[in-house]
Amino acid sequence: MPKSMDRLNNSVVFEFVLLGLSGSWETKVFLTLTFSLLYLGIILGNFFIVFLVIADSHLHSPMYFLLANLSLIDVGLSTTAVPKMISDLLIEYKAISFQGCMTQICFIHVMGGVEMVLLIAMAFDRYAAICKPLHYLTIMSPKRCVLFVILAWVTGVIHAMSQFSFVINLSFCGSHKIDSFYCDFPRIIQLACADATKFEFVIAANSGFMTMATFFLLLLSYVFILVTVWKRSSGDLAKALVTLSAHITVVVLFFTPCMFLYVWPFPATSLDKYLFIVDFAITPVLNHVIYTLRNKDMKIAIKRFSKQKYYVRFC
Ligand SMILES: *[C@@H]1O[C@H](CO)[C@@H](O)[C@H](O)[C@H]1NC(C)=O
């Protein structure tokens, strides 16, 4: 029997209670509708990208393989939290079992870790394409591309497990209330009987460091790309800036809540739970909007795809 299920004050922790999002009944109905639509957009949009990349041989290149992988991770990341959040919105007593809570934490951190490494790989891919165009295909060889994806998953699993091994052994006493709509390390640690300072350090050293390092690495690589383009010809700078500004926006949006939560754990406010909605519901939508609607090859592929359907229907 895990220690966390020890009897304490004759009570056993088998579940946590999520306080979720608060508001009037109208607000909750509004949020339910909004998030349902967003979630539908995430599922349809991202699976459409995966389908397009697999089906269209013109998109069989490193950038689109990484993009398809990112789309799957986006679906995974929002699926760990959004459906539960939606179904909880209209329920008064929002419970989550101990196992459910631990599973959710695990998935969030595996997916989050994979997403971060994939974003780095995609920035590296753009660096190779823009700054070393003649060597692009040797730098981003199919083998290296597969290696990036494997590295992303290995990093995600190690990242999640290294923190999880600390939390799984915690005992919980007192309140079981989590002031959020999902389970995560900083919130769970607050409920533990043991002194939380040690665990706070583990989280900051792992999740906190990983987010900060990835964030600055990504920003640096985008600046590096822009400077390279600018040195070559200042005319191209405007074009590159337009493309990369979308990526930089997503990176800033995705990383701000993470840094807010993990670099300074134990937030005094519950602002972080509202911020995290961005990571679960907004950036997964933005990613596929940015990469498909603002991308020439993708637009052509969509046209090609719709023409194909046209022929099938009328011939
Ligand atoms: C993910 O990336 C790998 C390596 O490039 C690729 O073989 C695979 O097809 C990608 N997955 C999807 C769903 O496109």
Textual characterization of the structure:
The chain is mainly α and 315 residues long. It has one domain (3-314): Rhodopsin 7-helix transmembrane proteins (Rhopdopsin 7-helix transmembrane proteins, Up-down Bundle). Helices cover 75% and strands 3% of the residues. It is built from ten helices and three strands. The protein has helices at 25-55, 62-89, 98-131, 136-139, 142-167, 185-190, 197-232, 234-262, 271-293, 296-314; strands spanning 15-18, 94-97, 177-178. A three-stranded mixed sheet has the order 2-1-3. The longest helix has 36 residues, at 197-232. Mean pLDDT is 83; it is low at 1-11. 2-acetamido-2-deoxy-beta-D-glucopyranose binds next to α1, α2 and α5.
Task: Give a topology summary.
Layout: E1 15-18, H1 25-55, H2 62-89, E2 94-97, H3 98-131, H4 136-139, H5 142-167, E3 177-178, H6 185-190, H7 197-232, H8 234-262, H9 271-293, H10 296-314
Helix pairs in contact: 1-2, 1-9, 2-3, 2-9, 3-5, 3-7, 5-7, 7-8, 8-9
